[in-house]
Design a protein that fits this description.
Layout lengths: L10 E4 L5 H14 L7 H11 L3 E3 L2 E2 L15 E13 L2 E10 L4 H14 L1 H9 L3 H8 L6
Parallel strand pairs: 1-4, 3-5
Antiparallel strand pairs: 2-3, 4-5
Helix pairs in contact: 1-2
Length: 146
C-alpha cells in the first residue's frame, strides 16, 4: 500500500448523532469522494449489514462491502467519522464509524490495524477527547503505516 489509505479530509467530527443508515451513507460518500470506491459501494455496505452487523464493540462500527461487490472498490481507503450524539447501530451504541474499502485482501490487514486502535480503553478515551478532525487524524494516522 503505497498511498495513504486515510487522509485528513476523510476524517470528520459531528456534535450530533445520526441514524445507522445516514452514518453508512456518509462513510460511503467520503470513500467515493476519496476515489476509493464507486457509487455502488453504499449498496454493498447495506448488503453486508443485512447479513451480519459490522458493530465491533467499543463504540465502533466498520461498515464495508461484501466479497461479491469487490468490483465497486477502486483502491483501498478509509473514512472516519465521530458522532458525539451517538448512533444506534442495530441496538448497539456507536460513536465511531469507520468506512473501509480494501482492495484484494488488504481489508483484513486494515481491519486489524483499526481494531488495535480501538481495543484499548485509554486510546478510546483519547479518540473521544480529540477536539478537531486534525487531532483525531493524528491519533489514527498509524493506519497508514504499512
Amino acid at each position: 500500500m503505497s498511498h495513504s489509505i486515510l487522509r485528513l479530509e476523510s476524517v470528520r467530527i459531528h456534535p450530533s448523532g445520526t441514524t445507522q443508515e445516514a452514518a453508512m451513507k456518509e462513510a460511503a460518500d467520503i470513500l467515493v469522494a476519496a476515489g476509493a470506491v464507486t457509487n455502488g459501494y453504499f449498496a454493498a455496505m447495506q448488503q453486508r449489514e443485512a447479513t451480519v452487523s459490522t458493530y465491533m464493540g467499543n463504540e465502533l462500527a466498520i461498515p464495508h462491502g461484501t466479497n461479491e461487490t469487490k468490483d465497486t472498490i477502486l483502491e483501498s481507503g478509509l473514512s472516519l467519522v465521530r458522532y458525539d450524539g451517538g448512533v444506534d447501530w442495530g441496538g448497539e451504541p456507536v460513536s465511531f464509524v469507520v468506512g473501509i474499502a480494501g482492495k484484494g485482501d488488504e481489508h483484513l490487514e486494515i481491519l486489524g490495524r483499526i481494531a488495535i486502535l480501538f481495543s484499548d480503553e485509554d486510546d478510546l478515551a483519547r479518540l473521544k477527547a480529540a477536539a478537531t478532525p486534525e487531532e483525531l487524524f493524528e491519533l489514527v494516522a498509524t493506519v497508514n503505516e504499512a
